[in-house]
Amino acid sequence: MSPGSPTTAWSVYIIRCDDETLYTGVTTDVERRFREHLEHPRGAKYFNGRNPREVVYTETGHSRSSACRREAALKKLSRVEKLRLIDETPARV
Fold first, then answer.
1. Structural domain count of the chain
2. What pLDDT was estimated at residue 92?
3. How far apart are CA 15 and CA 6, in angstroms?
4. In this structure, are residues 16 and 56 in contact, taking their beta carbons and an 8 Å threshold?
5. What is the largest CA-CA distance in the chain?
6. pLDDT at position 39
7. Given this model, what pLDDT does residue 51 score?
8. What is the C-alpha separation between 10 and 17, in angstroms, rounded?
9. CB-based contact 34:68 (threshold 8 Å)
């Protein structure tokens, strides 16, 4: 299964940063993407000035389209709602 193929499973994830903010993203490999965020040039610009600490939430089994829709929905949640979701569903990385 190659990245980007229709059968590739996509995941939505939330990372807690050292400043306690939450970052939401999508990927086909959460562990690889977390490492890329740690290595700033390959990570998101969001991590300029802050450091990713841990993956605190993942959802797997999405298509790219459904993962992007779910990411957008999660980004609309309040911080309190995101923290509740994280508390109810531990990360599975």
1. 1
2. 59
3. 26
4. yes
5. 37
6. 86
7. 92
8. 22
9. no
3-state secondary structure 28-81: CCHHHHHHHHHCHHHCCHHHCCCCEEEEEEEEEEECHHHHHHHHHHHHHCCHHH
End-to-end CA distance of the chain: give it in Å, rounded. Answer: 20
Identify whether 60 is part of a domain.
yes
Domain that holds residue 70: 10-88
Would you tell me how many other CB atoms lie within 10 Å of the CB of residue 47?
Answer: 18
Q: Residues near 57 by Cβ (< 8 Å), separated by ≥ 6?
A: 13, 14, 85, 86, 89, 90, 91
Q: How far apart are CA 81 and CA 93, in angstroms?
A: 21
Q: What are the pLDDT digits (tens) for 12-59?
A: 999 999 999 999 999 999 999 999 999 877 788 999 889 999 999 999
Taking 50 as the threshold, does the pLDDT of residue 1 lie above it?
no
CATH number of residue 66's parent domain: 3.40.1440.10
